Amino acid sequence: METVTTLADLRLAVDELRGGGATLALVPTMGALHEGHLTLMHEAAKHADHVIASIFVNPRQFGPNEDLDAYPRQMAEDSAKLAAEGVALLWAPTVEAMYPQGYATNISVAGVSGGLCGGNRPGHFDGVATVVCKLFNQVRPDMAFFGEKDWQQLAVIRRMARDLDLVLPRVEAIHGVPTVREADGLAMSSRNVYLSPAQREQARAIPESLATAKAMLGEGKAWAEIRAAAEAVLLGNGFASVDYFDLRDADSLELLASDNGKARLFAAARIGGTRLIDNVAVT
């Protein structure tokens, strides 16, 4: 696996990989790779001749009181994992390479970026849309792969790509890959490493709350009752607060009061100093 850190070297490496008409898949990450990330690499390899991964901890998607400095960085370990997966190229730019001095452009995606994590993390999805647009233009992949655990992020990227005409010809398809979970149901996340052993045990209440809500929806219960029961599961299992527990349309992310046939349940809650998110399809 080749690793490049400058845009000039990236373009040379991409041109070489694309020789003979080979297809390229991009998997953007912020590093601290776990089995969920590696599953994205597996899926990408099924669809393209070569997989390109990026590792970039994007400062523009962190708020002033969030964990940018504490976010885990383990480039050597991550590189070894990617090489073992057969990834052809790792794009690992510095902050200065991604945002040169005088950088002044920002991408904002209305609608799908509102509410959920967008409501609790102002500016977060502007940072996501901006860096992903830059990655698409830098790598010029045929397709890109993202995890469904960050469903709102996936919706923002799809809308951004469509609205800016990035879907074709540069990005042929944006694939969502189902969430990879631990044995007890907890969604794999780079932030799980922040949990103490006791908090890790309590954290399984996130998928349990979603399962509770899904079952109650199937029984025809009122949404207010469902939300109260789900939040009680979280707060009764050690979570300090619930940022949101919502039922929303999978595409528009508009709030719903009942299942419309394409609904998803979304949860975000805080335990200790860690904020965990998750979502599941209702049907």
User: What is the CATH architecture term of the largest domain?
Assistant: 3-Layer(aba) Sandwich
Order of helices and strands: EHEHEHEHHHEHEHHHEEE
* Assembly of the depicted chains: single chain
> Average pLDDT, to the nearest integer?
96
Q: Find the structural class using helix and strand composition.
A: alpha/beta
Total strand count, please? 9
Distance from first to last alpha carbon: 40 Å
Sheet-strand content, in percent, reads: 15-25%
Rg (C-alpha, Å): 19 Å
Percent range of helical residues: 25-40%
The tally of helices reads 10
Shape: globular
**What's the CATH topology label of the largest domain?**
Rossmann fold
Strand sequence of the main sheet, in spatial order?
A: 1-4-3-2-5-6
**CATH class (first level) name of the largest domain:** Alpha Beta
Unreliable sequence segments: none
Determine the CATH superfamily of the largest domain. Answer: HUPs
What do you see in this structure?
- This protein is an alpha/beta fold.
- It folds into two domains: 2-177, HUPs (Rossmann fold), CATH 3.40.50.620; 190-278, 2-Layer Sandwich (Pantoate--beta-alanine Ligase, Chain: A,domain 2), CATH 3.30.1300.
- It is built from ten helices and nine strands.
- The protein has helices spanning 7-17, 35-47, 75-84, 95-98, 116-120, 124-139, 151-163, 197-202, 205-218, 223-235, and strands at 2-4, 24-29, 50-55, 89-91, 143-147, 173-177, 241-249, 263-271, 274-281.
- The chain has a six-stranded parallel sheet with strand order 1-4-3-2-5-6, with helices on both faces.
- Helix 6 (124-139) crosses helix 7 and helix 9 (205-218) packs antiparallel against helix 10.
- The model has no long low-confidence stretch (mean pLDDT 96).
